[in-house]
Design a protein that fits this description.
Strand content: 15-25%
Largest sheet: 12 strands, mixed
Order of helices and strands: HHHHHEEEEHHHEHHEEEEEHHEEEEHHH
Distance between the termini: 23 Å
Helix content: 40-55%
Number of strands: 14
Radius of gyration: 24 Å
Length: 405
């Protein structure tokens, strides 16, 4: 988007940003919102604070203070953003996509930065990691929330956290717990999700799946091949058992003849229900290189609960790339038993929406170009980037609708 495009869209952008007026108590502070958003929407090669401020004729320090020091209600801005998404895109087939992204950073002052796995470069690197919730429905998608992942080394060093402006109540939490917090906030703002999807980093956490199920949320998540369960639900006994003078065995417990739970990978290789089931081909979607075709097997399995007893009864979908049979993915879902395999497959592969959001937000509006040292600045940057991207998504949708007329 070049300067001419911005000028043509200025009335629309001005009207859009008015939706957030009540997030700012002071008029001069509110004026910086348009400076930041217009900077992110511009054709600047670098979209950190300094070049955006210089481009707008504003002192860089002023824009830095707007981001990290000025008083305004960033939580209300996030809520308003989500309420706008609900007002314009509520309806059936809404999908929530959970994922994380990482950005390489130099030094050790950026909040949460340390040497850790960095998906952007595919190796251990000095970076920060943020967890995000995306919303997708039909051909629309956007990010609606994001939060910093605070590593344990940071959480245990409260002096370092205070220097970065990280609140004392903010401590280390696994990424799946952060994801649930983002989910709960969105639901509180009326975001209705038919399904939640996530990769195996989240699907491999049984507590995450149980928490979503307890909230009444259907999910289709990819899981590691070592996740275990039973194809045939084992029997449980309540009968106490005592031998000799020692304590009796705990109850309830699996009966002696119950088979142990096995991994989904072993189910595929050795269990007749899956091994002998023919692969069925499905066209998932049309990609840039042509149609994506996957071969699928499907069964219902029983997961272990925290006590090692039979827990959730879930769909297991095994998908094999038709062009590369060595690429195999495993998905679990708590959708109703009658849900079609095609639906589960299409939902499971809808993670591309958030991957596209990350790609666009980093390439177009500067998601990865935060250079501050304060947590509040980072939090606000993540939210303002969502505001900028939602405007882009609105414009793109209007252009598509005009082409269809």
């Amino acid at each position: 988007m070049d300067a001419a495009d911005i000028r043509r869209l200025k009335p629309m952008l001005t009207q859009y940003l008015k939706c957030f007026d009540d997030c700012f108590d002071r008029k001069d502070t509110r004026a910086h919102l348009s400076v930041y958003v217009e900077g992110q929407l511009s054709d600047l090669s670098a979209k950190s604070v300094e070049p955006m401020a210089v481009h707008a004729g504003v002192a860089p320090r002023t824009l830095q203070e707007f981001l990290a020091q000025h008083r305004w209600q960033e939580d209300r801005l996030r809520d308003r953003l989500q309420q706008l998404v609900v007002a314009e895109h509520a309806g059936p087939h809404g999908i929530g996509v959970i994922d994380e992204t990482s950005d390489v950073k130099k030094g050790d002052k950026t909040p949460g930065v340390q040497r850790q796995w960095c998906g952007k470069v595919g190796k251990q690197e000095n970076c920060l990691v943020t967890v995000h919730l995306g919303f997708a429905r039909d051909d629309f998608h956007c990010l609606v929330d994001g939060e910093l992942y605070l590593p344990l080394s940071w959480s245990e060093d409260r002096q370092r956290c205070r220097e970065a402006g990280i609140p004392d109540e903010m401590v280390y939490r696994p990424k799946w717990q952060i994801a649930l917090e983002l989910y709960d906030r969105a639901r509180a703002n009326g975001v209705q999700l038919e399904y939640v999807v996530a990769d195996e980093g989240y699907g491999g956490k049984p507590d995450f799946l149980r928490e979503l199920h307890a909230r009444g949320q259907c999910f289709v998540v990819e899981v590691p091949r070592m996740v275990v369960g039973w194809l045939t639900e084992p029997q449980v006994t309540q009968r106490p058992f005592r031998k000799g003078r020692g304590p009796g065995r705990k109850t309830p417990r699996l009966t002696r003849r119950s088979r142990p739970a096995i991994s989904v990978e072993r189910m595929l290789k050795h269990s007749p229900e899956l091994r002998d089931q023919p692969w069925v081909r499905y066209r998932v979607k049309d990609g840039e290189k042509g149609p994506m075709v996957w071969e699928v097997k499907h069964v219902l399995i029983t997961m272990k609960d925290p006590q090692g007893l039979p827990g959730l009864r879930l769909h297991l979908v095994v998908a094999r790339n038709a062009l590369d049979p060595n690429e195999v993915k495993f998905f679990l879902s708590n959708a109703p038993p009658e849900t079609s395999v095609q639906t589960l497959l299409l939902v499971g592969f809808s993670r591309w929406h958030i991957e596209r959001c990350f790609e666009d937000q980093k390439g177009e509006v500067g998601l990865d170009q935060f250079e501050g040292r304060k947590y509040l600045g980072l939090k606000r940057h993540l939210l303002l980037t969502c505001v900028s991207y939602l405007f882009l998504a609105r414009v793109c949708q209007q252009l598509r609708e005009k082409k269809q007329i």
